[in-house]
């Protein structure tokens, strides 16, 4: 049987990570995956998470199945964290998932169960997994413009393209800190999007993977909450991988906002059915940790403070990079980077420039130009700026062969 298996496409990001690992240059820099690293290059376990884990280990008495919706305390805590403590939670439901990816997949399946073949619009460029997840769930994918040629959010292009999205379509929007570009729309553009959705009848599907790492937790969640307040239906995929540092614990949540509590009556069962056919139920550990942190006022405050410190560190590194690039004579490119937010920045190098940067300096970002700013130790910023400047230099004849 296996001889019939066609050669599958390799995962481009993990391939680059393997190439980095095999690079013998000690000064090499891995900025491929979206992972926060501290100044020593380590992805730390957050102190509030560690404390919750110790508490859970001391109390643990059973690892019995929890049910298809996962950890109920976690689901409640996620609803108020994402939607706030107002009345929105009364017309919303949440189901724990296998991280943000699981939430995207389960919500895509909910859309398919509602209307097979539904068209889902994703940004161009998009998070590398959006298209495969949606197509894997049997949905049709179309794209809308996201970035203008200067590296900023292209509000005009996006509104023009999304004016073509019709009733019954779904529009996937990254709630903040867009992956891969780091370019987010202004709040006014978000409000225009809400107006367009209300007029044309499409449903926003918000992907929240980096809330807390852009402008702060509440500021990053503001567009999502505004959409949920103004529109009858919103789907929200929530990841706890980055803002709780729970990458390998695969912790996330599918949130559905409906026009009323009654309108949601079949939603949880539909999501459970989707989960049952994929993985039955999600792992509990990360969800139990998040619930423990969010339900305890002191731990919640400690987590928020640590998340703020991570965000400030990323912002400071980006500002430093912008300053160094400017000093090297690349003010125009630096200005575009300055407007970007969150873990990622899109470099104006193109695939060849990214390859040049890899070859000349051992700096690894994605082929399309994305680098993980949150992965650069502060003292390596001058090296990164120099690497970008070197990659911007015209290739030598030897390099073009
Ligand atoms: N959505 C976006 C935009 C992402 O960048 C990621 C991860 O990088 C995810 C979702 C999924 O995150 P995870 O499944 O690790 O929680």
Can you walk me through this structure?
By secondary structure, this protein is α/β, with parallel strands linked by helices. It folds into 2 domains: 136 residues, Aspartate Aminotransferase, domain 1 (Alpha-Beta Complex), CATH 3.90.1150; 231 residues, Type I PLP-dependent aspartate aminotransferase-like (Major domain) (Aspartate Aminotransferase, domain 2). Helices cover 46% and strands 13% of the residues. It contains 15 helices and 11 strands. The chain has a 7-stranded mixed β-sheet with strand order 2-8-7-6-5-3-4, sandwiched between helices. Helix 8 links the parallel strand 6 and strand 7. Helix 2 crosses helix 10, helix 4 packs across helix 5 and helix 11 packs antiparallel against helix 12. It is globular and about 65 Å long. The protein starts with 11 loop residues before the first helix and ends with a helix. The mean pLDDT is 94. It binds pyridoxal-5'-phosphate. Pyridoxal-5'-phosphate binds next to helix 4. The site of pyridoxal-5'-phosphate has 12 residues, from helix 4.
């Amino acid at each position: 049987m296996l001889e019939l298996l066609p050669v599958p496409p390799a995962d481009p990001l993990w391939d680059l990570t393997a190439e980095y690992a095999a690079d013998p240059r000690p000064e090499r820099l891995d900025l491929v995956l979206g992972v926060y690293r501290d100044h020593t290059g380590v992805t730390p376990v957050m102190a509030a998470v560690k404390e919750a884990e110790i508490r859970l280990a001391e109390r643990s008495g059973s690892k019995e199945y929890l049910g298809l919706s996962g950890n109920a305390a976690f689901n409640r805590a996620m609803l108020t964290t994402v939607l706030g403590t107002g009345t929105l939670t009364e017309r919303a439901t949440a189901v724990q998932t296998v991280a943000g990816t699981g939430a995207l997949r389960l919500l895509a399946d909910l859309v398919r169960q509602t209307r097979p073949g539904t068209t889902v619009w994703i940004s161009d460029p998009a998070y590398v997994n959006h298209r495969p997840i949606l197509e894997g769930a049997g949905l049709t994918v179309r794209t809308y413009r996201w970035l203008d040629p200067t590296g900023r959010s292209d509000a005009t292009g996006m509104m023009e393209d999304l004016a073509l999205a019709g009733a019954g379509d779904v529009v996937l929007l990254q709630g903040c800190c867009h992956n891969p570009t780091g370019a987010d729309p202004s709040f006014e553009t978000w409000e225009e999007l809400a107006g367009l959705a209300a007029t044309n009848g499409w449903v926003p599907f918000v992907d929240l993977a980096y809330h807390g790492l852009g402008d702060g937790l509440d500021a990053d969640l503001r567009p999502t909450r505004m959409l949920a307040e103004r529109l009858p239906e919103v789907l929200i995929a929530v990841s706890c991988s980055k803002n709780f540092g729970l990458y390998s614990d695969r912790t996330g949540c599918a949130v559905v906002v409906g026009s009323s509590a009654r309108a949601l009556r079949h939603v949880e069962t539909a999501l459970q059915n989707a989960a049952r056919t994929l993985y039955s139920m999600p792992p509990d550990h990360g969800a139990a940790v998040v619930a423990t942190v969010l339900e305890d006022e002191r731990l919640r405050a400690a987590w928020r403070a640590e998340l703020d410190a991570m965000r400030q560190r990323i912002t400071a590194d980006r500002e430093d990079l912008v300053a160094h690039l400017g000093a090297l004579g690349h003010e125009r490119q630096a200005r575009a980077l300055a407007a970007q937010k969150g873990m990622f920045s899109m470099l104006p190098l193109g695939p060849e420039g990214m390859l040049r940067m890899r070859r000349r300096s051992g700096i690894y970002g994605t082929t399309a130009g994305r680098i993980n700013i949150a992965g650069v130790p502060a003292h390596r910023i001058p090296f990164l700026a120099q690497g970008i400047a070197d990659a911007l230099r015209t290739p030598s004849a030897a390099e073009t062969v």
